[in-house]
Amino acid sequence: MIAVHIPVLLKEAIEGLLEGEGKAFIDCTVGTAGHLLELLSQTKDDVMVIGIDKDNKSLEVARERLKDFGDRVTLLFGGFEDIDTLIEPLKPPPIAGILFDLGMSSFQLNNPQRGFSYRENGPLDMRFNSAQSLSAKELINESSQENLLQLLRKFGEDKWSRRLSRVIVERRGTEAFETTVELSNFVRRNIPRRAAHKTLARVFQALRITVNNELENLKTGLVKAFNLLKIDGRIAVISYHSLEDRIVKNFFRILKEAELAVTGHQRCIRPSKDERMSNRRSRSARLRVINKRAELTNQMILNEYTELETVHESDTEGNE
């Protein structure tokens, strides 16, 4: 039996979406259908639910789990950065709610062959869409030292970025990196032992974000989702690290200042103690919900958002 992803903040996310009553909802990151299954279970038979994912293996699992719902649910292969063109042929009713559950699923992380985990031995892959050309192997072995420094610094926010980018380039001059364990062991040998766990997580995060263009895709997907949403519809976003959450906060703030939307809560929603204890991967999760109040008729107000750096520029180098 295939182990499926345990959905995070399930009750809170679905409640947030269902406050926007309507006949159509979209899950932009359907994964193995944890949130989508609950959404279908809590809506009437005349409600259309659309699931999007760029991981075909996850979609296969989701399709099997949702087969009893028949034509109420439509699953689409693709990324949420293309949400508008993906759903256009379906001609859905006005969209009442859109969910983004960001990051990777347990289903992906627990499969060593996907290369997402530094704890398991597998190929340096990290692609959500296995059909795309760029993988972590090409990235780590072919990027210039300066490009490696920038991606480790910006998307890993780790103080050992400069040292690691230098020694990685030196090592691959004689031997390329092929597997996750090779890279993990190399990182451990080149930084203090006390920093190994956090630095490895940040290095793998930086590579995964770059391979999948995650942050720029998120910025694009949020704008398109807002434009698709009906008045009084909701966008709910679950993020797992500060880079994602910063983008979501900035987008929601700009919409609020333009009086185009209001937030569902004063602060982000965090998992309860019970959820954190039962599902360790929920510990860093943050849920933010926004309620659309007016159409975006002037694209100029989004210039501030679309031109924002995905992270704040800062020198994170430590004593190397």
Chain-wise SSE layout:
Elements: H1 10-18, E1 24-27, H2 34-41, E2 48-53, H3 56-65, E3 73-77, H4 83-87, E4 95-101, H5 106-109, H6 136-142, H7 145-156, H8 161-172, H9 180-189, H10 196-212, H11 214-228, E5 229-239, H12 242-257, E6 261-263, H13 273-278, E7 286-292, H14 303-306
Parallel strand pairs: 1-2, 1-4, 2-3, 4-5
Antiparallel strand pairs: 5-7, 6-7
Account of the 3D structure:
With 320 residues, the chain is an alpha/beta fold. It has two domains: 10-107 and 214-306, Rossmann fold (3-Layer(aba) Sandwich), CATH 3.40.50; 110-212, Putative methyltransferase TM0872, insert domain (DNA polymerase, domain 1). Helices cover 42% and strands 13% of the residues. The chain is built from 14 helices and seven strands. The chain has a seven-stranded mixed beta sheet, sandwiched between helices. α3 links the parallel β2 (48-53) and β3. α1 crosses α2 (34-41) and α7 runs antiparallel to α8 (161-172). The longest helix is centred in the middle third of the chain and has 17 residues, at 196-212. Mean pLDDT is 90; it is low at 311-320.
CATH class of the largest domain: Alpha Beta
Please tell me the overall pLDDT.
90
- Total number of strands: 7
Helices, by number, come to 14
Poorly predicted ranges (pLDDT <50, ≥5 residues)? 311-320
Kindly name the structural category: alpha/beta
Spatial ordering of strands, largest sheet: 3-2-1-4-5-7-6
Summarize the main sheet: 7 strands, mixed
Kindly report the CATH topology of the largest domain. Rossmann fold
> How many structural domains are formed by the residues?
2
Q: What is the end-to-end distance?
A: 47 Å
For CATH, the homologous superfamily of the largest domain is named as Vaccinia Virus protein VP39
Oligomer: single chain
The proportion of strand residues reads 5-15%
General shape: globular
CATH architecture of the largest domain: 3-Layer(aba) Sandwich
Helical content class: 40-55%
H/E element order = HEHEHEHEHHHHHHHEHEHEH
| Computed CA radius of gyration, to the nearest angstrom | 20 Å
